[in-house]
Amino acid sequence: MKYGLIGRTLAHSYSKEIHEALGKYSYGLFSLEPEALTDFISARDFGGLNVTIPYKKDVIPLCDEVSDLASAIGSVNTLYWKGQTLVGHNTDYEGFLYTAKRSAISFAGKCVLILGNGGTSLTARKAISDQGAAKIYIASRSAASISTSSSVAVTFITYDELLTIAAEIDIIVNTTPVGTFPNNLQSVVELTDFPNCEAVIDVIYNPFKTKLIMDAESAGLKIANGLPMLVAQATAAAGYFLGTPGAFERENEKIIEKMVGDMRNIVLIGMPGSGKSTIGRIIAEKTGKTLVDMDEEIIKKAGKSIPEIFEEVGEPGFRDIESEVAAELGKQRGLVIATGGGAVLRDENIYALKQNGLLIHIKRPVDSLPMDGRPLSKDIDALRAMETVRMPIYETAADMTFDNSVKRLPKELSDAVCEII
Fold first, then answer.
1. Are 267 and 362 in contact (CB under 8 A)?
2. Long-range contacts for 287-291 (Cβ within 8 Å, ≥24 apart)?
3. Averaged pLDDT, 152-176
4. Rounded to an integer, what distance in angstroms lies between the CA atom of residue 210 and that of residue 106?
5. Is the peptide bond before 375 cis (omega within 30 degrees of 0)?
6. In terms of DSSP bridges, do strands 78-82 and 48-51 run parallel, antiparallel, or are they unpaired?
7. Which residues neighbour 38 within 8 Å (Cβ) at sequence distance 6 or greater?
8. Is 337 strand, coil or helix?
9. CA dist 404 to 15, 90, 255, 363, 409, Å?
10. Which of 360, 354, 350, 356 minimizes the C-alpha distance to 276?
């Protein structure tokens, strides 16, 4: 039996990894041009299919039966067989609710803003309405109304009108692709415009954390990205494929954890000479991730050594190149990134590195830091002054700290680093 995903552009899909993690069937990615869609479905040469952009509406007339839920939403993302009957269903709904529940986000009695009015917006609107929201706003460029089943008052507005209703909003749900790789760190809205917002869901999963999510996290709000939704809708679909609805929900957290572990960057920050490169090599060896030294990437990009860069353009010019490198590396996944000592001095670099990365502060006493070949580490007084300025930044930016102040033999250091992993 053939199982897989149909869509137009599937190069960055993770559906194959998720479905095959269940160990029940092989799963393919079928990129189809619009003119090929009808023939592909009509051949009926498959055991089950998932459907993504731009075909979630187009497959509806090709089904023998459409579930009440999918009909109410107006979007199908799962095709499965009930005997000889081809059924169109929507498991994005289940995935969205799983994501909200996982982050303890409740819509009951809340005023919710949904950004975007595409297929995912329709699913979110139905789920939020069913969970008892008090009011829903749908924001888009044109404020065009799309009919769908809803028991809650729905108001359509343009992005230009958002400030007029911003104070009402309790929860923001982004269903637009704004901020998705490779256009990272973009956002439809500024969270500071919504003074009473308490939670943010962003259905984007590449990067793990969009600018909207990171802003919400910094503000202490409840957050959820799109990865749990992606996994939960896939495992729900698998249940329908195999005639056992709900059988694989228990696998969700294990799959999420594995995907995050495989794809997340580990980013090492700290004072110059604190041991980031050494510890980075150990982590890369233990995890199979690729080690990248930011200073080496800066040298490659500039075509000259760091002392030469400082001599020609000074520290501001060096920091500009560093920011470009941080932006490039932060978009990637599965890396161990050893940063330069000043890499997190700019907020834009912290955002770039945090979007896919876990930031670990490597802490080491100033008296133990080397100074050779480091333009800003001129002497111990310069290092102490540097530490005074930078330490609060490291501590604020870091997700965790590794104490590298104790002298360890190589095996002892390796064992200590393994505790991080």
1. no
2. 287/336, 287/421, 289/265, 289/334, 289/335, 289/336, 290/334, 290/335, 290/336, 291/335, 291/336, 291/338
3. 95
4. 21
5. no
6. antiparallel
7. 62
8. strand
9. 40, 50, 32, 5, 12
10. 360
For the chain, the first-to-last Cα distance in angstroms comes to 39
Which residues does the annotation mark as catalytic? 56
DSSP string, 361-384: EEE--GGG---TT-TT--SHHHHH
Q: How far apart, in whole angstroms, are the C-alpha atoms of residue 384 and residue 405?
A: 16
- Could you give the C-alpha distances from 338 to 9, 20, 23, 62, 267, in angstroms and in order? 33, 33, 36, 52, 6
pLDDT tens for each residue of 204-246: 999 999 999 999 999 999 999 999 999 999 999 999 999 999 9
Helical H segments across 88-226, by residue range: 92-102, 119-130, 211-218
Residue type, 324: E
Structure confidence by residue, pLDDT tens digits, 337-371? 999 999 999 999 999 999 999 999 999 988 877 76
Where do we find the tokens 């690729």? 290
Identify which of 224, 221, 174, 161 has the alpha carbon closest to the alpha carbon of residue 196. 221
Length of the chain equals 421
CA-CA distance, 165 to 157, in Å (whole number)? 10
What is the CA 347 to chain-centroid distance, rounded? 19
Q: Spell out the residues 6+ positions from residue 321 whose beta carbon is closer than 8 angstroms to its own.
A: 298, 301, 302, 309
- What's the one-letter identity of residue 146? I
For residue 269, the cross-strand partners are 361
Considering the entire predicted model, what is its pTM?
A: 0.91
